[in-house]
Amino acid sequence: YDSLGYIVCNPATEQWVAVPSSGWSPWPDSEVEEDEDYYTEEDVLTHLIFDPAVSPHFQLVQLWQESYMNLAGVHTYSSKTGVWRSTKRGDWKQWSLDAITSTSAGCPLNGMLHLKVYDIYERRSIIVALDGEGKTSRIIRWIEQRGFPVFVGQSHGHLYCISGDIDDSDMITELSVWVLEDYHTEEWVLKHSVSMFQLFGKMSYRFDSYEVVTIHPDRNLVFFVEYGDCKLISYDMDSKEVCDVCTLGRGYGCITPYVPYFSDLSVLENKH
């Protein structure tokens, strides 16, 4: 693990660059469990920040998770400097990592990484914007009346949040799509709502029965994975049409959205 690093690649141009190891290695107790029914959170979460409109350089923000509720540190990498740096935890110590692990891809927008987080002390959900140095640059509040946030993403150049309406048995009955039309305010606008029955054919769904994969960057499409049938489906907010995209194999892992950017980048120097 001391020698492991990353490769950041543009699949469209086949340009790539190697990133050195950040120094992370598994915690001692994370390797001893071999029981297939035993589940532990990931020890490290790495997020990519890249916005060609802001800079030709990319950044990595890495969260070192020591335990389910404890963050060991934040480490960042910049392709401009070519080195990893560590950042103090700051406000992270009061936030639950459970909310972070459920959105491992994060949402890059305006040169910052956006994650939905649960504030343990305030007992509320918030959206945190991190800069390329791993520092909190903004906290966007979320009120309970909008439902429980299950996904944060970007579309049409705006920040989006999808929330679920919960019934008395803690089941989700409806999903709502909200958009922050003015990024400098906290005025979320309701864009669309859809029932779980229309999406999956059931009146209500458990939190762990499905996943919001992503929202299309240029169209009003939302993609979901239904765990029971391992299906990837799309929902068109304009036509209200549900489409079966494909059936995924068991143990498919995770799906990370890919947004093409076709220009050659000097920062990705190695080529096939």
SSE blueprint:
Layout: E1 6-10, E2 15-19, E3 44-49, E4 59-67, E5 70-78, E6 83-87, E7 95-96, H1 97-101, E8 107-109, E9 112-119, E10 124-130, E11 136-141, E12 148-155, E13 158-166, E14 172-180, E15 189-195, H2 196-200, E16 210-215, E17 221-226, E18 231-236, E19 241-247, E20 270-271
Antiparallel strand pairs: 1-2, 2-20, 3-4, 4-5, 5-6, 7-9, 8-9, 9-10, 10-11, 12-13, 13-14, 14-15, 16-17, 17-18, 18-19
Structure characterization notes:
This protein is mainly beta and 272 residues long. It has helices spanning 97-101, 196-200, and strands at 6-10, 15-19, 44-49, 59-67, 70-78, 83-87, 95-96, 107-109, 112-119, 124-130, 136-141, 148-155, 158-166, 172-180, 189-195, 210-215, 221-226, 231-236, 241-247, 270-271. The strands form five sheets. Strands 7, 8, 9, 10 and 11 form a five-stranded antiparallel sheet that branches. Strands 3-4-5-6 form a four-stranded antiparallel sheet, with no helix packed on it. Strands 12-13-14-15 form a four-stranded antiparallel sheet. The model is unreliable at 31-41 (pLDDT under 50).
Total DSSP E strands: 20
Strand fraction band? Answer: over 45%
- Shape category: globular
Distance between the termini: 26 Å
Over all CA atoms, what is the radius of gyration?
19 Å
Mean pLDDT: 80
Return the structural class: mainly beta
Oligomeric state of shown chains: single chain
Main sheet overview:
5 strands, antiparallel
Helix content: under 10%
Q: Which consecutive residue ranges, at least 5 long each, have pLDDT under 50?
A: 31-41
Element pattern in H and E: EEEEEEEHEEEEEEEEHEEEEE
How many alpha or pi helices? 2
